[in-house]
Amino acid sequence: MKTIVENILIEGLYSVVVLEYFRTFYEKKNIRGILFYIWGISLTGQIIENNILINFPGYIKTFTSILSLVIFSCFFVGSIGGKIVFAVLYGAIGTLCEILIGIIFVSQGISVERNANIGLLLADISVLILVKVLQCFFHDTVIRQLSWKTSVKLMLLPIGSLFLAYYVFNTEYALAGTSFNATSFLCIGIIFVINFVVFHLYIQLSENLELKRRTSVYEKEFLLLDQHIKEKENVMQEFRRRRHDLKHQMSGLLRLLEQKQYGLLESSLKELAELQRLEGFTIANTDNSIVNTLVNYKYETAKSQGIDFRVHLDIPDRLPFADGDLCVVLGNALDNAIEANLRGTVRNPYVNLKMSYDGDVLIIIIENAFDGKIKEGKKGERLTRKPDCDNHGIGISSMKSVVKKYYGFYDVKINDNIYKLNLLLYGAKNGLKRD
How many whole angstroms separate alpha carbon 206 and alpha carbon 212? Predict the structure, then answer.
């Protein structure tokens, strides 16, 4: 009975530590009683380990422990690749703490087998302290999805450190029996440092990915600003030209008036009214300068590549979305549509953009032709067809991040050689709280 109560308490503490650990890097899903779910799964795993896996090697138990951590990570929001890395890291740190407690017990002549529960309790407390230290450094960290290749590479360090730690402990225990020298503590300490370096590396790579995304946004904004200035200059030049022509036209009208040729005067006035319209220089002529500049810039790009670019815009001068977010969504979506027309063999290349704002909802529909070839992953997810996969494909994830920020909708429809992207963004009037 005493052992059962001890196991329940130990697994309860372990569940609290795991919950705090994943909360350091990920946001909890909106599920009630996550702690109790983790505690129940953990207690079930402990019962299986004590009754079924009791005679299995230690590394098998470590593997099942990491597997349970991956299951626990499903209660948090984030990419599965990143959560597996952090599960392996927790498994490494937890095992290292247990090994370190075991070394201390043996050095002090305390039986490891008889005081196993006390050792587990002390190991969990040690991990909890380390988690609190991690929270001091990474409390404002946003974890971005890294590629599987990068995640696997990062996992090799903690996995290797586990085997190294087991080797050090088993070798020293077999040779020394009842004591460990300072070298053992030093080795475990170095392995601890290696695993904390992995934390730093993952966070650094994640921050670099976010920096690359922001840099891409800033580059697009600078391009838009430059294009906007050029468009204004072109309009002003056209305005000056027409003002100059207007002087001659007015002189002609005065002569017609003096000659009392009223019919010809009327037709000339109507023609002049049509000529004075300053529209037609660009395809987008809404009251929103950001959308105008971006769409007109992409229109010029598409037209230079022989792509038919059609636009229907119905938006106000101001939208309740950050200009940078609009650049990310609209810029990346149009870039992908234009590039799809240029990739492979496309008979009738075109891009059709429809954009409307109604009821505090922004609707963006982009339809384009493509060669009909889609690259998919093992789970059916669409992958970039560009050569450098690690540095490309960021645009789609950035668009999805913006859509998620505004509690929107991202959907793709494919019909033969037609690719259709549907995007919805909700404004602030819907009562949705955003950070």
Answer: 10
